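Quick start: read one record
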Amino acid sequence: MTMLRFLSLLSLLLSFTSLHAQCPRENTAFKAGEQLTYDLYFHWNFIWVKCGAAHYTVSQATYQGQPALRTDLLFTSNRRCDLVFTMRDTLVSYTTPQLVPLYFRKGALEGKRYTVDEVSYTYPQGRSHVAQRYRNRHGQWSEHHYESDDCNYDMLSILSLARTFSTRHYTVGQRIHFPMATGTKVEMQTLVYRGNQDWKANDGNTYRCLVFTLLDYEEKEAEKELLRFYVTDDERHMPVRIDFNLRFGTAKAYLRAKE
């Protein structure tokens, strides 16, 4: 479990609307100029220690000469954390203004490991083609290709899509399955809706939240909760808190500021 599961956790915003639909989607949840900042805390030696920050931004851009939305997510550990575990994770996604995926890249420096996931999307003859490249920690690259008649997404583009969905028909305990490109393959993920809860963020505001958990793969004998996260119960579906398990312990991300 890596820090980049934070991105998967953001996918919690999925409703029970099927992903097997046309890719273009009307976006009324967010717009270019949105900026969210999170405080990161790690659990070491029975105490919680503030250990860095995460920054999420949406901006206007162009991709191959066409208008696009660019989404960035940056994780940065502070000096105290760097003494134990250095983290510099940078993620970027390009979509059309209608949230059709175009490109995704994830560069992850975690400890002494540096890896890259890269995904490019094309749509010849109405089919979704996903070209994936992966750089392992030894600097070796591999390439993979996937195609289907359905839409395919990555960690950031699926977040953008999911934030446009209605949440009025959630059922506590219901499971949500969705596909995600990882750089080497497209695989299904599982979320469970846990209900509603009020929570006070680090920006001083109390939010009415939808609570979700991201599970390890269901075919294993015992399911493991990888993530628990909180998003606002409104049209914006803004992520305000994430609890997650890592290889080196547990961590939390609390919303500190928004624009």
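The helical segments are 5-10, 79-82, 155-162.
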